[in-house]
Design a protein that fits this description.
Elements (H helix, E strand, L loop, with lengths): L6 H8 L6 H5 L12 H8 L8 H21 L2 E4 L7 H4 L7 E6 L8 E6 L5 H16 L3 E4 L5 H11 L4 E4 L13 H9 L3 E4 L9 H13 L4 E5 L6 H10 L4 E4 L3 H5 L6 H8 L2 H8 L9 E4 L5 H10 L17
Parallel strand pairs: 3-4, 3-7, 4-5, 5-6, 7-8, 8-9
Antiparallel strand pairs: 1-2, 2-6
Helix pairs in contact: 1-4, 6-7, 9-10
């Protein structure tokens, strides 16, 4: 278990009104942060001298100390933007998460990671595509990042484990619980097989819709690319799809089976729109002002796999030593 030297100060600051994630991330520029007191930071870095009462400060300090104790008792590690071990993939974001909680194999966050995401209600063909893409990626040297939700997320995690790969589950709540509860055993298996559970939320935080959206962005941020296996036209998976393009990394939109297309399945319509629309329509679907069209990869057949791997490897955050390359498969 690791607890950052900067941890209690950042946690205390995070509990004060008016100090949000972007404000905390801006502290990266403070070279003397570890020597500064919380009061110094409030005064000198935030220009908020005498803004908080003694009671507010005491409550913030108590919260931070309690989180430290909980991390110790639950074997949860806590890393901040001031730690050398903070994930490579997050360091250069404009506003990186100021801290992250982790359980399990933290070093996997600094390996070659890609996200596999999609609807909670995939078609049977979508389940097969998700399984085969996951196994192909693991075979080619990648850890799999997903969100532990029902559907494609669970398929990605389970099939990574089935082929002895490592997988990382990004959670939208504190690491003292598992949501959905039905995936408690899967979460345990991830930890038992050298994977990790990750969250930017303090212990005791419950899941809510806003957290789920932010969770999706962290999935993308930890990854060299996102594979969108299957989604409806307004699916939640579009949050991570938008985020990866905003980070300047590839979004790989997976083609759909002829059967599902013929059946006009609802849960493939987001993929079909991204595969077939012009750039203006894509910006509308993903709620983007702009994006690099070269980073939206259309994975329609085995002919697209070599190019996809090449692009992913250009976006790695650590050395890639895998020489094996599968030619992929058709749907």
């Amino acid at each position: 278990m690791f607890f950052s030297e900067a941890g209690e100060k950042l946690l205390a600051l995070s509990r004060l009104k008016g100090i949000g994630e972007k404000t905390l991330s801006s502290l990266k520029k403070e070279n003397n942060f570890l020597e500064m007191t919380v009061e110094d930071i409030i005064d000198k870095s935030f220009s908020k001298k005498n803004t908080y009462t003694k009671s507010e400060l005491d409550n913030a300090f108590d919260f931070a100390k309690n989180q430290h104790d909980l991390c110790n008792s639950k074997d949860i590690s806590f890393y901040t933007i001031f730690d050398n071990e903070y994930p490579y993939s997050l360091k250069n974001l404009d506003s990186p998460p100021p801290f992250i909680f982790s359980k399990g194999n933290y070093s996997s966050l600094n390996e070659n990671n890609v996200a596999v995401i999609g609807t909670r209600e995939p078609t049977s063909r979508g389940e097969e595509i998700g399984k085969r893409i996951t196994e192909w990626l693991v075979k080619n040297g990648f850890n799999i990042v997903s969100g532990l939700a029902h559907g494609i997320d669970s398929i990605a995690h389970r099939n990574t484990l089935a082929v002895q790969g490592k997988t990382i589950a990004v959670m939208a709540h504190g690491l003292d619980s598992v949501y959905p509860k039905a995936n408690e055993l899967l979460a345990s298996e991830i930890l038992e097989n050298h994977g990790a559970l990750v969250s930017e939320y303090p212990i005791g935080t419950k899941v809510n819709p806003i957290n789920l959206v932010k969770r999706d962005a962290i999935q993308a941020a930890l990854s060299s690319g996102v594979f969108l296996v299957q989604t409806g036209i307004k699916g939640g998976s579009l949050h991570a799809s938008r985020a990866i393009l905003q980070y300047g990394r590839p979004l790989i939109v997976v083609g759909q089976s002829k059967t599902d297309i013929a059946n006009n399945e609802e849960k493939i319509q987001g993929n079909l729109a991204l595969l077939n629309a012009d750039s203006n329509k894509i910006k509308s679907i993903l709620k983007l002002n702009n994006f690099n069209p070269n980073l939206l990869v259309k994975l329609n057949s085995s002919l697209d796999y070599h190019e996809t791997l090449t692009l992913l490897r250009k976006n790695l955050f650590s050395p890639h030593n895998t020489e094996n390359e599968d030619k992929g498969f058709d749907f």
